[in-house]
């Protein structure tokens, strides 16, 4: 099969597409023909060996995928050949085939395209978990989304709207702000302007942000916290800007505010029942088309490097997806 193979931790330009043997199927596992794989920020870090845990070399990158079951001896988890699924795994998705345990996949609702399903689970589960379970976002509250045109940002806008919030989307250029507005943001703001906090204050009639969804990090995080409303909740989602900010402790005191961490990887381990409930909610929204996940740009497997470059150069609108099989 064709697969992207990381033989040495290196920048994406040095990573090759290779012919490798299909993975072995162990008892109780499923073989899936991968139709599309979603590329996340973490995948880029893993390839370079810069993520907090390192995959042993050589490895096939890619954590999120959608496709069709081709082998399922004994029907593990009730899955049969031909069923379409979406899944998440530690690695291996940027390949024509993947072998996983049944717990790694969910059935794909009828009529949902593979590209959509491959951009769905990580970002939308992160957004729903963060906004509903951690921040307890209530209808009518003001939600400030940083990095709003990125993969998690656009998911937070859509989930925020489904939960009834008033969404203010912050992004660095007009194309990104238009993209955020087109996907549901009520208002947009250019957070690269020195006076963006004054503009934000006016936009919220002096109230500030009840909830801040923050996948960006760096100096902007501290600035945003300074614009939080009384009893506001700031969700720590990621550090796309690179720097991990340090928050002066007097700010939460003065604002009655809370800093809340979000880690998608720990939800199935520490809160499996919550994950189950949130996934049922997401798949129900997906099935009845209340939620239309945003596919940013779809690349052919041969062009996988371009998918990473687009994300790594801060040019991505939404989530990058690699199409693998028809
Ligand atoms: N906690 C979790 O469970 C969880 C789950 C998924 C992702 N994450 C993390 O969340 C972060 C964002 O993921 P994502 O998928 O939303 O990424 P993304 O699609 O690349 O979006 C990140 C956004 O951050 C902004 N940004 C600011 N400085 C940047 C820089 N130097 N380089 C790149 N982007 C920069 C960009 O918006 P502007 O240009 O508008 O500023 C960009 O749109 C990553 O650190 C990822 O690992 C965490």
TrEMBL record:
Highest taxon above the source species: Bacteria
SUPFAM superfamilies, sorted: GroES-like, NAD(P)-binding Rossmann-fold domains
SMART domains tied to this protein: PKS_ER
InterPro entries tied to this protein: ADH-like_C, ADH-like_N, ER, GroES-like_sf, NAD(P)-bd_dom_sf, Quin_OxRdtase/zeta-crystal_CS, Zn-ADH-like_protein
Pfam families linked to this entry: ADH_N, ADH_zinc_N
Enoyl reductase (ER) domain boundaries: 10-322
Full protein name: NADPH:quinone oxidoreductase family protein
Taxonomic lineage: Bacteria, Pseudomonadati, Pseudomonadota, Alphaproteobacteria, Hyphomicrobiales
């Amino acid at each position: 099969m064709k697969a992207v193979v990381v033989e040495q931790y290196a920048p994406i330009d040095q990573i090759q597409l290779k012919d490798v043997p299909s993975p072995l199927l162990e008892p109780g596992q499923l073989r899936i023909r991968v139709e599309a794989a979603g590329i996340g920020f973490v995948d880029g870090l893993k390839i370079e060996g810069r993520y907090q845990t390192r995959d042993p070399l050589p490895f096939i990158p890619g954590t999120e995928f959608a496709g069709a079951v081709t082998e399922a001896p004994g029907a593990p988890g009730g899955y049969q050949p031909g069923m379409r699924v979406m899944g998440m795994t530690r690695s291996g998705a940027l390949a024509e085939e993947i072998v996983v345990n049944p717990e790694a996949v969910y059935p794909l609702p009828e009529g949902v395209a593979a590209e959509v399903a491959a951009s769905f689970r990580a970002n939308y589960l992160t957004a729903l978990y963060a906004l509903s379970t951690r921040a307890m976002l209530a209808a009518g509250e003001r939600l400030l989304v940083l990095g709003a045109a990125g993969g998690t940002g656009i998911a937070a806008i859509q989930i925020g709207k489904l939960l009834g919030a008033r969404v203010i989307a912050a992004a660095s250029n007009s194309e990104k702000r238009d993209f955020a507005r087109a996907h549901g943001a009520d208002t947009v703001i250019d957070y690269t302007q020195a006076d963006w906090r004054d503009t934000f204050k006016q936009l919220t009639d002096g109230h500030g942000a009840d909830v801040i969804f923050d996948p960006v990090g760096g100096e902007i995080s501290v600035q945003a916290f300074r614009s939080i409303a009384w009893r506001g909740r700031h969700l720590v989602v990621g550090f796309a800007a690179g720097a991990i900010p340090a928050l002066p402790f007097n700010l939460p005191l003065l604002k009655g505010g809370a800093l809340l961490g979000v880690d998608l990887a720990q939800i199935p381990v520490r809160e499996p029942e919550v994950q189950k409930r949130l996934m049922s909610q997401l798949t129900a929204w997906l099935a009845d088309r209340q939620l239309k996940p945003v596919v940013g740009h779809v690349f052919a497997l041969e062009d996988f490097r371009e998918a990473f470059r687009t994300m790594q150069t801060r040019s991505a609108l939404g989530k990058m997806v690699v199409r693998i099989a028809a």
